[in-house]
Structures are given as structure tokens and as C-alpha cells.
Amino acid sequence: MVNGGASGTASTWQDNAGIYGGNTLLLSNGAVANVNAGGQLQSHKLTVSNATINLAGTGGLDTTNSAFLLASNYGSPTDGASISLNNATVNVQGEDEDVEYTGNILIAPTGNKGASISTTNTTFTIGAGNNLLIGVAPGADGSATNISTNSGGATVALNTGTIINNEGTVELTEVSSADFATEGKYVVTTLANGATINNTSADSAFVINAGNRFVMNGGVINNSGLIDIQSGAVASAEEQATTNADGSVLTDGVTTLSGNINVGGILKVVSGSTLEIAAGSNLSTNTVITGDVKATEGSGNGSIQVIGDEDSGAAVLKIDSATLKNFLTAGDAAVVGNGVDTAGALYISQGIVDLGTAANLNDFKYGNASGGTADIGAGKISVGEQSTITADTLTVNTVLDVTDIKSGADKNISDLLTVEANTFKIAATSQGLTAINGASGALGFKEAIVHSNLDVQYPGNTQLQVADTYYLDAYSTDADGNYVAGNGTITGKTFSVTNGGSLNFRAGNWTAAQAITLQGQTSTGSGGSINVTTQVAEDEIIGDNVKASADTLLTSTNVKLNGLVLNVDTGAGSASGDVAVAVNNSPEANRKGLTATLDLTSGVNVIANSDASKNAAASITATGQGAKVILTGNDVNTLLDNSKVGLGAYSNGTIEANSAVSADYADFASGDGSSHTAGKVNFNGNGVFKAPTLTLNGNSTTENNTKLDIGAGTINVNSLVLNDSNPAVNSATTLVSGNIDVTSSLRAQSDILNISGAHVTLDTGADETAGALSINDLNITSGSFNVAQGEWNATTSDITVNGGRLSVGTDTDSASFTANRLTVGGEANTGVVVDDLGNVTLTAADLQDAAASSVTVNGQMTVVGAVLDMDNDKTKNENHHGLYFGEKNDATGIFNVDGGHLTFGTEATKTFYDAALQESGSAVNNEDGSLNYRLPFVAEDSQDRLTVSNGGEVELTFADGTSFNRDQILSLKEQLFAEIGEGLGSTKLDGFLNIGNAAISGIDSQIVDGAISWSALEPYTDIIWDATNTKLSTAKVTGVDYTSQIGGHFGSIEAVNGTEAVTIASNTILSNAAGNNGNFIDTVDGTVIGATVTAEQILTLEGAGNVGKLTLQAGSDNDETGVEFDATASGDAITVQGAITGPVDDNTYTLFKGEGTTTVQGNITVGSVGVAGNLVAQGDITSDEMWVDGSLTAEKSVTTNGIDAKNGATVSVAGDMTLGSSSTQGHAYADIEDSSKIAVAGDLTVYGGTIRVGSDDITHTQYVNATQPDGSNPYNGYVDAADETADGQISNTASTGYLEVLGETHLNGATVFVDPTYGLGTSLATFATFADSSVNHGQLGVLDGSIVVGKNAAVGLGLTNAELAERIAQFQTNGSLNEGLYGSILYVNGQVNVADGQYIAINGNANNKTVAQINADFGNNTADLRLGSNTALIISDNAVQAAANSRDANRDAAIEFNKTGATVYAQTDAAVLLDGTTFSLNELKIFDDADGNGVTLTSEDGQGLYVGTVSGLFEAWMDDGEAGTITLSITRNGLENTALSYPVKDSLYAILGDTVETETVPPTEDTPPAEGEGSEGGDIAGDAGNEGDVPAETPRVITEVNKYKLDQGSFLATALAEQASLQSVEQAARLGVYAGVAQATLGATNTTTEAISGRMGVGAQSGTITYADNGQGAGLWLAPVYKNHSSDGFDAEGADYGVDMDLYGLALGADYTLANGVRVGAMFNVGSGDADGNGVASGVSNDFDYYGFGVYGGYTMGALSVVADVTYTAVDNDFDASTGLTNYSKLEGSADSDALSVGVTGQYEFATQSMTVTPHAGLRFTKVSMDDYTVKAGGTNIADFEADDMNVFSIPVGVTFASEFTSGAWSVQPSLDVTLTANAGDTDLDGDSQWLGTDNGFGEIKYGVSTEVLDDFTYGATLGIAAKTGGFSLGLGVNYTGSSNVDEFGVNANARFVF
To answer: 0.70 exceeded by the pTM?
Structure first.
């Protein structure tokens, strides 16, 4: 051991002296070893630690002259020899500066033991002319060592430290080996991360000798000299991108080489690594490549090899085109190496070669290199598998020059090479055009990927052929890695895509400036194609050689072509090379809201051969939901007419015409989706054809000529015209299949329109909008005819339904339909349905073949009746009255009136009751035998044809004067209704028979003034309980008391005084409260009272009116007790002045409907509450269940076991809402969908079960599978048999829902599940607080249930729906979250505690539709918090602050889990985002559990959980294991999204970041700047300073940067916490600059020089006419001035700013003209102004005052004049900026500035008769200086600024036009001057800024800034006028000066008097 002691001791070995340490030799602790000529330090294990070695040999690789460190295996050791240099210093400096082998660090790997050299934190310094040799010891004679038989190998590891090579040479010793193919035969030298080799001068060299493999794995080589890779050596770039444990970048995977580089051996890039050859490098080879060789480690000398693999990814070479071209071309590069420059080679296999800004592919030669025996050929780019050449702009002029350099090829270059560029230019030369077309359009590569522009140029008119594959992907990625659509263009000349070529648009918005031709081919070729898609195929290269899986999606794709030509003429027979235009959108893309659209509205032309056999096929197709092709209607007509092109609408894809289309029926047909029949629109899989108007033409006399058969396709049109050129009797148009959607007009010419399998829907989109329906007869035999919405009249049309379905209206949309005659047949599936809001009017109805319940009336239906013979027996003079049931039809209950209203008109009523036939009725005689009356006679074939239920009503219209007594009404009911058996009064109807205007004997006569007493009615209860007439239905019933058993249809009820409630003993309708002072039920004195509804009865209140308390008795399972409110019209108002009560669990209900509003002033307590209209509940609501598809406003509380909100319902609860109860624990539910919303202002309490917000398409099976562990199913109360389809599935369309709770929520174990589907509006659920909350402290309480956030869903805790919507908007597209970004979000806006046993799950997987599926997606992980892929848990600053202020100091995390051992599980790409303005770099506690030790985190990929601010400014990583607390670090990406300029970003990152990759950053004392480094306007330096100045883009790799902790409350900490844009930080860094100090100084200076110029006659004349006098004498002049300066767009190193300035001043001057014509003078000016910043300087202002003085002189000699001046201007600036920051609301500073200006101008006057023309030119130098200043805020110094002087050189050139007029004693001279000025020198204001106000050290860091203040070129015009009389003159001038960033206006005036 040689130990240097405390201060170090020097020892010297020289003159062949040495130390032989045996097995171990150690130098340490400051030891210094001077090893001179012949000296050696030799051992088996040689270690130098914290010591210095000085090697000073005198030359020659021998033991006499050289100095050695040597480790050997002599003596048969058990392991390999080694040299370890740790924290050592090695100086290599001989006595003179030309020593070949000054020092040697060598190993002798003998005996198969191997040997190694390792350095750590060691610095090598090589003196000028000296040589350091590292590696294997050479032979005794200095020759190369042969290690081919040594299996131990040799390695050199340069780990950390620096080799400083000052004009010397560093060599890796040469090793001789017979076989270098095996990597182990090399001496492997590794340059690791942290190690640096500096070749500091042109005479420095780093030599890699033969037998060495130099591995660059993270280190840095700074080369100003030579890197010499000798033949037989390999230099390999193998650095991989790596990160630290906290996620910060450790290595970026990029190795950079520069300077002179000789590739005598192999320069290699491996998989996953990038080698960058810096621009301007001199790359060459001195190795002659003979023949073609294989690319292996042992061969391929003289080549660059870029070789990747499948597992680790591509290898990347970045090299500019010129450098690569020189390398591949012999003799073109500067001499390097041994002075010979031969042609090199480049080999690519699974690699990328990036040629930088621009490259021409024809500058290179290419070779195939896939398979065979050789890969490399001199002067060529050899292409292997998956090779890519890329540049920002790639150009090709002709077919690539390709040579096959191998034998046994299995692929050609056209199968191997991908080219990729933002701009791809095909710029064919004349010869190139010939060559390209001669190659049938193939340029020679496999495919081209274009990101922004495809440009096609060629000479002449012969169209260029394109036969290659082009992928057009215009997209970018945002800071979060999400794809963003870009814009792309196709420009240049038109071209033809042929011979298998294709344009494949896969992302972004593309437009083509020219028409594009697709050319068909013969059977031996393939035609051209255009494809528009959003899906990337598996293993497809999408950019930068990144492979995409099958479901990788970019963005929506929208393409607009400027014309498309389909040339199907192949010119030869057997044509099969088809052309195709295809638009495809996958289900995944549609689910994510992506679309694919091709706009062909600029025109489609078809070129075809008259010989059909010579024509290829052509197709235009759209496949998939969201896929669309848009054409003009005329083009669709043409394409269908010429039968050359097939159109295809497949799988919900759309073919859309933008104007009317006229075609044949046969032109629309179903297909298989693959064969596109020409001349047709082919449908498959729900494809859609859309047009404003579609006219179909045919002739019904030809079979099937008017038949439309489109399979499962859809035709969606505003207007549909079904023409028939022979519309004779019984002619027919048949719609066989498909969906026909019509919005405004349907017209059919044929006698019959047959619906035989199609589904026709008429829907105007608005209830009261009329559609146009013009048809003759309609026959529906299968399929359906649906009048969905609007008013549609077919008054003269006969409708037959026999096997199909006719429906009118829905339960939410109103529709009316009028027809002549309806015939209903008896075929299966026949049905006529009038839905709740439907209204049908028929003249006649033929039901002789109809089955029971064939006609269902839920809404309104009227059969008017007519005089018709309807039995088809040709019996004359028969009249069936327009309603015929048939004599042989025994079906009963054909009309089923289910809650609706069926009216038979006067004539139709005769079917049941014909007065002429009443003599056939049974006689009822008096006691004396005389006829008293006859019972009604209903013909047998009309009996029992009606049924009524659920309060439905059948109304008959009898002739005036008709009257019925009790027995007659009972008889009439018995005969009419199937449900009433024989025998009078045996059964009461579940509804009403209304006999209209007919009288009821014994009743009508007692109705006086619209009123009748109950005593008069009571004897008739057996009829009035289910029968009424017009008079009775509007009458007021009086005299009612509590004993009265009311039932019937009346107008209103008046009870005796004192009655508290009436009894509804039978179904009752009250419909005329207006006839009773607006009251449905009251007493004589006008007191409003209520009613008791007895069991199984229904009370209905119609119209508007008041009623009191309503009590419902228990109903039964088959027959409920209910009260219905129908506030029919929009102005109707029903008021319940009391409560509605009934047993909650015993079949009672209330229903509120109508357009008006019902208000219930008391409580509602019933079994079921249904709201189809508008309900205002002023009391509490208690029910077993509720459903709302209207509007419910609950002013107090709501308690129910379940609520279902659909169809856009709104539920607003001002009080509390309770779902379920303790007795029904686990069965509560809420289902909110169809964009419905429930808002709860009070508390929400849920007793188990599930709250579902939004829905996906859920099947019945999925509901069943939702059964909970306890066996309960929360959907049991939700699934309704009415929702089931024929196959047992639930028809539940995906939809959005909204839930908002403003009070406390108590879930009691319930689960909240929020989940619509992608593409819809995001479902929102928000909860203000939970149990045990303390709102004042922002603590949200205990979440005592579970929250499951599904796809496209957001849940907010501690905020409202509106607030949540605002905060997630940045993550949405068209109102929907994005699956690829954050498809599911939980937002926490306060501290929340999660109860033990409950969990939170966030999962955005589109395939999951239930809670069970989501949990399965997590692998049934039972973590307390489960974060799915691409989901976000967002925590606001309010949550973190609330946690910090927790009442329990041990419960201070944003999310606390009330259990010990809480767990968090995170899938890949899950994130915790921090949202707010008060996050800082201090420690944040996100999660914790009951024991206070954090939570246990498990991540799917083992990488931990990302935590970052929404702005991206700060981030951290939670590692797996114990987690929950993080400390944020600033991020480079986050800084890029701020308003900061590059140097300010760098300064913050240097202060706060962990690592810096390739950015120029402030060095610290530990990492001084390399020479010449700095940012663009200056340097970032420590105290030592840094005078270098290089562009900002110059990279500098610094892997360790000090991280400072900001003072809490400091300016920077406050700004970082409160201001996402950091604009105030940027302003503080350049406050004076942004305040316009430079502009104010220059502006004030210009007022001085402009005043002098004006006085001296330069430019427009505003008062200088006297100068021309040239007479002797003195003059005094005065010039007021005003300037308005407005600028924007000035560059502040990545930030933009401008200044708006106003300046006011006054100039005073005097001059004297000498006898020789020389004029001299002096002037003084003074003024003030103000300036305001804009852009990033917005909010900055400056108030300034100035003064200036100058001297000037001029001389005129004939027409030539010369003027010169010297001026000085001083400006006092006071500036400030408003920030809005806490404690730092205003930035303030002041600085004096001045300008010294010297100028000279010459002009020459040319006089004409009318004017003078005076060109002038000048030169001016201006020096602008600004004092250093300090920026203060809140009384604290926060920043210093030191400004450099600006030296500006200006060259103005202009011309003045002037003319003089004389009027009396006055001479007037108007003038116009135009001047152009070039500014050179300093147009930027440079300076150094530094941050103050901290004790953490970074205040010493300065960073240079450079700010543009002046444009390089300005232009201006001045308009002036001067006038003179005698010795007095005056003038006025107006001027404008403009430039790229500035607009400046000025006004000046002057007056002068000459003495």
C-alpha cells in the first residue's frame, strides 16, 4: 500500500524503476505517483483510490521509454487481473509535446482468467502531443496481442469521470485475433453513464484499435479532434432510455458523436438506442470495402450498422443527409484517419435512419439485404427487415437506384423499406417521370408514411403514376401522450394511383388541392385505392417505427378531395384490377367517438371503355358506425346510371348525398358486404343511405320493378318519392326490407304501397310539425309503419294491416295520423297500437278478420264512420256505417282501450246502435201490457267487440234526442263489452262508457245549470259508476256528504258544509273544475276538500283545478288504488291543497301527467309515484318506488326504496332523499339515464343497494348477474317485463345520467355505480359531504358505501355537477371522456374518509357494463382503492388543505381509509392528478390508513403510481409497497405548457428539477459549464460566469442538478402554487423589457432625430421649406410631437409579447446658416409617455419621462445635400405588473435608460416642372443602455436584472415627392416620403437575470435572457405640409412606420422664425 497521508506524499518512479505489488497494490488517501520513462506500477490487483498518477514516458512502446500501470495474470492466479481507478487523477504529460506512448494503462489477460480495467470518478488529462494507451498489453515488440485463444476475455469500464485530451491521443490497444465474429474475442471497453471523453482540440484523437469493441452506454464524447475507429474495431451505441425510481429521466438513450470520425471498422447502433451524428461532423472511412460482405461483428469494416430487434425495439441513427452522402461517397469528405477517404456502407435492419430536416432519397444508392449471404456493399444503403428512412422533408425525383448485393434474396427492397416524413415530395424530373411511369408508378420502397403534406410535381401533361402504399397520418401527441388530430394536405399536380398503389388516410384532417385518379388494371395487375380509416392494423408502422396493436387508434379522420376520377378503362380484356374507395370505422373507434369521413362533393368522374370486358370494377364504400362518404346527389345519380361503380353502406356505415337523388328501385339492394354490385347502393349490416330527397323510379307493370329490398339497411331522408310510371289500378310499390326513416315528406304514386318486411318511420322531430304524406292505399303485411312524431294526414288513403304493425305516437312523443279506411286482418303479429301520445282519426274500420286485441288504444282514437258497404258480398244498398266486424268473426275485444279514449262518430256508432233496427230490441211493458220501452238492439256481429281497462273510455255519438234509461245502458254495456257477462249489471267496467250527447233518463233532466244532486244520482250508481254522457261528465255533483259512495265521470263535486272528504267508491273522473269555481271537490261555502279513494279504484282529475287531501286505501296485486292528475294543456294547473296518503306497501299509486303542472301542498305517501308531466311537491314524498320521465320538484324530502329517472327527466329535491330503509337493507336502488338528472340539496341516505347513473346496453342476464353476495339483486325493482324483447333481453339503450347531492350522503353500504358509454355525454354524480362531515373545514366525512366509476363517467366529492363538469371539460371531446386518455374520473374536493369494508373503483374499460364485470377486470382484487388503466383520481388543493387542517392530526391525508392495512391497486396508466393553484414542492399526503403508516400500493406493472398536477407542472411517483406520501418535482413537460420563455424554464428546472436530459441549464459549482455553452441570448452561469454564447438548441447533457427546497411563502413558491401559467415569474425575469423600456428609449430618441431630419429637409416637409433658401441668418424652431406605438409577436425565447405605447413631447431648436451654406444648430427636447405590455407581458405597465439634446449640421451643394447629427436621450422608467399572487400582488421596478445616436444622411433633388423627387439614404448608429435594476414585490427583492448595451445600425433608404404652390405672400409645399430601413446589430436586448430572496443557494445562479425589441426591417410613409411667409414658417406631418411586429403612428408639428 502507498498511502499519501493527510496531505499526500509524492513518489517518483523513473529510469526503468518500478513497484511490483505481487497480488495487490493500493495507492490511496492523496498519494501521488510520478511514473516516468520506463517506470511501472505493476500488480495482479492494482487499485488507485483518491490518489494521483502522473505518467510521463518519453516515447516508444517499451519498458525503457514508456510509463506503465500494468495488471497481469502472471504467476497463475485464481482470478483475472484488474486495475481499479476510483476518485483518481491521471495526468499524461511527457517532457516534450510529441511523445507517442507517454503513458499506458494495460492489462495482460493470460491464462484464460481474463482481465479488466474499471474507472470511477476518475479524471484523465492528456497533454498536448502525448498519448494514453488503454487496454491489453501488447507483445514484447509492441505488436498486437493475440487473444483469440484466451477465453477469459478483457474488459475496460469507464464508469464515471472525464478523459480530458488536450491535443494528445487516447488509444485502445490493438488486439490481433483470427476471428472477431465472436464478441468475446474483443477487448470490450464500456463508456458508462457519467463518464466523459473530451477531445479538446483539432489535434486530439481517440483511437479504437483493431480487436476492440467500444460500447457507448450513457457516457459523453465531446470531440473537437478525431474519433478513429480502426479496421477490425467496433464502436457500438448501446445506451438505453432509463429512469430513476422517482420516474425522472436517468438516461435518454441517445449517444451523440461530433467532429471528425473515421469509421475504419464498424460503427453500430443497437436495439432501443439512438446514435446522433451531430450536424457539421466529418464522417468518413479509410477502409476499402471489397465485394459484398455480411454484417457481423467480425466483418463489415467501413460500415455503419443500425440493427434493432423485435423485443427491444428499433435502433435509430440520426444523421443529416449531407454527412451520410459524404460517408457513402469516396473522396467527398475531408481527410481523416490515415488520409484515405473511401466509400462507406450503411446497413439497416429493424432500424430507423433519421436524416434530419431534409433529404433526397435519390442522393443514395440502395441494396437488398434480407436473406442471402451478404448485407453490405460499398457506397450503398443496405436495407433489411423493417427498415425506415425518415426526415422532416423527403424528396424523390425518380425510381430509387437499387442493386441486389447478395445472392439468395428472399425479399426485395420494395418489401423492406419504409420512408417517413412530415412532407413527402415526389418531384419528378423529365427522366424521372419516364422512369417512374415505366416502373408502373413504383418508386422502389415498401410504403411511405406522411404526416402533413404529400406534394406531387412533374413536368408536362403526362400524368404521374403512383403505385406505392402511402399512409397519411396527421396527428400529434399532447403533454399527456394523447393523440391530437392534425391537418394534412395533398398538393401539386394531379396523379394516378394504380398498379396496387393506395392512399391510406388514418388520422387527422386532410384536403387535396388536386383531383386524384384511381386507375384500374388488367387481370395481371391491381388497381389503385383510397382508404379512410381510424384503425391501425396489427404490426402496422404508424410513425417513428412504433408498432401498433390491432386496437391502437389515433384520431378521427376527415378527408376532402378536390375531385376523384375512377378510370376503370384498362385498355385490355380480362380486366380484374379493381379500384376501390373505402371508408372504415371500427366499433372500437366509434365507441371512442372517432369518425372516418370522406368528402367527395367536389365531384366524382368515371372513365370507362365502351367494351365492358376491358373495364375493371370500382367501388365506394362506408363500413362501420361513424364511417361516412359524402357525395353530391348528381354524382350519385351518375354513378348509379352508368353501372360502373358500386356504392356500399355496410355495418352502420353511411353513404350520404348532399342533394337530391333520383334512381331506380333496383339501384338499392342488399349485399354481402364484400361484393359491391356496380350501379347500385349495396346495403349490409345496418348500412345507411342518407339524402335530403330520394326519388325512386320504376314501372309496376314489370315484375319487381317497384320493389325496394335493402336487407337490414336504412334509408334516411327528408323526403321520399316512390314513383311508378304506370300507376294503374292495383299497381303496387313494395318495400320488402330495411328501415325507411322520413322526416318531412312521403309520396307514393302506385295504387298500393306494400310494407312487406320493411320498417317505415315518419318523424318530423317536433310534436306539432306537419309532415306531407301522399299515398293511395297502404298495405302492411309484415314489418311496420310507424308514425312516431308530428302530424301526418292520409285522409283519402285506405290502410290494411295484416301480419304487420301500425303504430302512432310514443309514450314521450306526440303524433297524429288521419286515414280513410283501416282494415285489420287476422294474420299472426297483426297489430294497431295508438300509444300514449298518439292520436288517430279514421273514416272507417274493417275488422271482419281481426283477432282479439288487434287494436290497442293507449292514446286517442276516433272512428268517424261512413255510409259504406263493407262485406264484399255485392249486396246492394247495404250500409255498415264505416265500422264492420263481420258476421263470421267471433273474436271478442278487438278494440282494447287501455287507459286511452276511443270515440265512435255518429255514423260509426250506428254499427252498435242503429235507430232503424231498434224495433228488434226486447220489449219492456207497463203493468197494463203496453210497451214502455225497448232494450237497445246491438247486432250480433257487433257485440262484445270492445274491452276497456285502466280507466279507459269508449265514447259513442248518438243522434240528437236519443235517450237511455238505466236498463238500456246496462243492456248496452252488456252487449258492447266482452268483459261483461250476460245479465244486467253483473260486472262493472274498469273504465267508462260515454254515450256522448245522448240523455240518461232520470239524470239529464235533473241537471240544472250544470249541477245535479247526489241524491238524484245515487239511485243510478249501477250505471253512473262506469257510464256517463257529455252533460253528466261536465256537471257539478252537489249534496255529497261523507256517507256518499261516489263513482262516475263528472265535472266536479260539491259537498255539504262540514264535509271533510268525499268517498270515491268507484272509478271516478272529474274533468270540469272550471264549472265549480275552479275546484274539483269543495263544499257549498267554497272550502276545498279532498277524497278517500277506496280499494282498487282510480280517481282521475283532468284539466285545471283544486282539490284537498286525498287518501288512498290499499289495493291488490291485480288492481291498484290510484289517483291520476292530467294537467292536460301547458297552462293547466292542478293544486292539491293537502296531502296524498295511502299504504306505501299495499298497491297504491299516484300518476302525474299532462303538459301543465300539478302542485301538491302536503305530503305524498303512496306505494308508487309516477311523474310523466310536471309535479311540484311542497311536502315530503314517501313511496315504495318512483319513476320520473318528466319534471319533479320536491321542496322537502323524498323517501323511497327506488327511483327510476328516464327520458331526460329532472328531479330536484330541496330537502333530504332517502333510498331504502333499515328493514329493506341492500335493496335500495336509483337508476338515472337518458340524460336525466337528480339533484338533492339536502342529505342523501341509501340503505344498501345500488345507485346507477347512466347506462350501457344491459341484457337481462347482466341484470341477473348483478346479484349481491347476500343474494339480493338491486335491479329486481328495476327490471320490467315491458322492457324485454322477444328474445328475453332487456331493451335498455345506453344513455347518460346526472346525480347531484348538496347535503350529506349516507350510503349505509350502498354502491354508487356511474356508467354510460363512450361517445355520449359524460354521466356525472356529485356528493357534497358524507356522514360525520365538517364542511367548514373542507372535510367531507365518512364514505360509508362504495363508489364504482365506470366508463365515460365522473364522480365528484365535495362539489356540484356544474363545478365537476367545468373541471373535467379539459379531458373531454364533444362532451365525452376519452378512453385513451382518462375514460373514468373521480374528483375529490375535500378530505374524505372511507369506511372499513367499503371501496372505491375507477374503471374506464369500455367492455365493462356492470359492477361485477369491473371487479373482474381488476382480477377481483379486493383493494380499498382500485384504479384502472387510463383513469384518473383527481385531488384538489382544497382536499389537501382540508386534510392538513384535520381536527385529528393523525388523520391528515386527502383520502383516509378507516382500517388498518389499507391497500391501493393501480393498473398501468392510472394516475392521481392534483388540481388547483396552491400545490407546492412540499410533502403531500395523499393516502393513509388507520395506523398512520400509509397504505400498501401494488401496481400492475410494478412501476408504481403516477402523481402529477393537472397542468403537468409537478409530478412524483408512488413506489409499490408502503405509500401515500409524495414530494412533487417540477417537470420539463409541465414547464413547456407554461407562459415561460426557455431560459426561465431552464432556471426553474435547474432549481427544482431532479435531472436534465438535453436542455441547456444553469450549471452549479459542482457542474461548471462546458466551454461555449449557454442559452440563446446569454448564459446561465454561476459566480465564475460563462462567456460562451451558443444557440439554445445546442444540447448539453447534465445528469445531476442540485434540487433546492423553496422557502415557504417566497415569490417563486407562491407563483408555482397559485399560477398555472407562471406568467408573473416570466414578467419578473424581464420586467423592464416587457415594460417597453427599450421601445420607450428608442421612441424618445427617434423623436429627436426625426425633428432634426424634418428641420433639415430630409423626408416629408412639415416645416422645412426655408432650408431651400440657403440664406444666412439664425433660426429658432419649435416642434410638438406625438407617437403611438403598437407591437405584438416579438419573440422572448419561446414567449411572445408586445408593447402599446403613447409618447408626447416637445422639441426646441436653433440654428445658424453660414455664408458658405453650412448650417449648424442645436436642439433640446422633453416629453413623457406610458407603455402597456401585451401577450406574456399583459398587465405590465411603464410610466416614463425623457429629455434629450443634440447638435446637427448640414450642407447643400446644388441638388446634393448632406445632414449629420449627434443626439443623446435619457429616459426615467417606472414600471410595475399586477400578478394577483398572495403577498406579491404587484411587481415593481425602475431603471434609467439612455441612447446615444449618430447619423448622417445624403439626398439628391431632381426637379421637374410639377414636383421635386428627392431620393435619400443614410446610416445611423444608436447605442441603447439600461441601468441594472431590482424587481420588488411585497416589499421583498425577488430578482435582479443586468442589461447589456444594444448597438443598433440602421440604414434608411427612401424617396420624397414634393411640390410648391404660391398664393400671395404664402408659399405652401405638400410632400410625401416613403422610407425603408434595415436594422442590423443588436435587435435583441440581452441581459442576465437572477432570482433573489432565498437562503437556499440558487440566488447565485444567473441565466441569460435575450428579448427581441426591434424588427430587422421597417417601412414607413410620411405625409407633410409646410407653409412660409417671410421669415416665419410652420408645418404639420403625419407618419406611419410598420414592420412584421410593429405599427407606429406619429404626428409632429413645428414653427420657425428666421432672424
So the answer is: no
